[in-house]
Write a structure and sequence with these properties.
alpha/beta; ornithine cyclodeaminase, domain 1; Rossmann fold; eight-stranded parallel sheet
Length: about 300
């Protein structure tokens, strides 16, 4: 009856990407179908850290979980992740705590897995050139996940810190770029994984059929994409409700969310036609954490039984 306590190393060992990708597809379909209990996340300012604390609960099937996640952009200068998280997994029938686990890797890899699921559902097959705006942990996890669903012929990396760009490019087997425009021009898939509060991606740089995974800017007043990038695209969200209330890229540009990715995955809504520019606005849904945490918990029990 003692709850499991799982470290970052445990989570990394127990959560292979090949199991996570179908689990994220399932979670997104269930969310769009209304079979998930998930309120909007609570957000608290951390004035001393110049950051935020997010509280994210969700219930899906036999997975009841809540995640506590801090976003502290200044941590990069301290040699710490800017996103740190803890997940508590509970039994939905009794409320009993089943496990507590480090949620940092879950956050990084499930975020990237959701982007990969969307890329797989919406973009045509074939080799892709990827632009990565941002050079932190999410850039690295996105490179891993995208290679699992498409042949990637090149990854171009840009952020405001040239030293970080060089390290990230080396880690992902990519090329360091001197400007965001250099990274984006001619890219098939563009991932914005920054902590920017003002746009870093201009619509004028994008090819007509580009796919943009807009992963950062999780606050109503923050932007990663300018109005041209948003208004000239079909906008798909992980959650329409979240995007309309929490995503500055959506709120500030005044665009309409055309569909949720779960609706497209389920076949309830057709994917945008080939050649259309797509912006996939992902805010990181709590149900993704709950499903991933259940996978880790069950794998840990199986490992102990062997």
């Amino acid at each position: 009856m003692t709850p499991l306590h799982l470290t970052d190393a445990d989570v990394r060992r127990l959560l292979p990407l090949q199991r996570l990708l179908p689990a994220m597809r399932h979670a997104l379909v269930e969310l769009s179908a209304g079979r998930v209990v998930q309120p909007l996340r609570s957000v608290m300012d951390l004035p001393d850290a110049q950051g935020f604390l997010f509280l994210k609960p969700a219930l899906i099937g036999d997975a009841l979980a809540t995640k506590l996640i801090t976003l502290v952009p200044g941590n990069a200068a301290r040699g710490l992740p800017t996103l740190l998280a803890t997940i508590v997994l509970m039994d939905p029938a009794t409320g009993r705590t089943l496990a507590t686990m480090d949620g940092t890797w879950i956050t990084e890899i499930r975020t990237a897995a959701v982007t990969a699921v969307a890329v797989d559902a919406i973009t045509p097959p074939g080799p892709k050139v990827v632009a990565m705006l941002g050079s932190g942990a999410l850039a690295r996890s996105h490179a891993l996940a995208l290679r699992a669903v498409r042949p990637v012929t090149g990854i171009r990396v840009w952020s405001r810190d040239p030293a970080n760009v060089a390290r990230c490019a080396a880690d992902v087997g990519g090329v360091a770029c001197a400007s965001a425009e250099d990274a984006v021009r001619g890219a098939d898939v563009i991932c914005t994984v920054t902590h920017a509060t003002e746009p870093v991606l201009r619509g004028a740089w994008l090819a007509p059929g580009a796919f943009v995974a807009a992963v950062g800017a999780p606050r109503p007043t923050w932007r990663e994409l300018d109005d041209d990038a948003m208004r000239d695209a079909v906008v798909i969200a992980d959650s329409r409700h979240s995007a309309e209330h929490e995503a500055g890229d959506v709120i500030g540009s005044g665009v309409t969310v055309a569909a949720e990715i779960g609706e497209i995955l389920a076949g309830a809504v057709a994917a945008p036609p080939a050649g259309r520019r797509v912006v996939f606005k992902a805010l990181g849904q709590a149900v993704e954490d709950a499903v991933a945490a259940r996978l880790v918990h069950d794998a840990a029990l199986a490992e102990r039984a062997r």
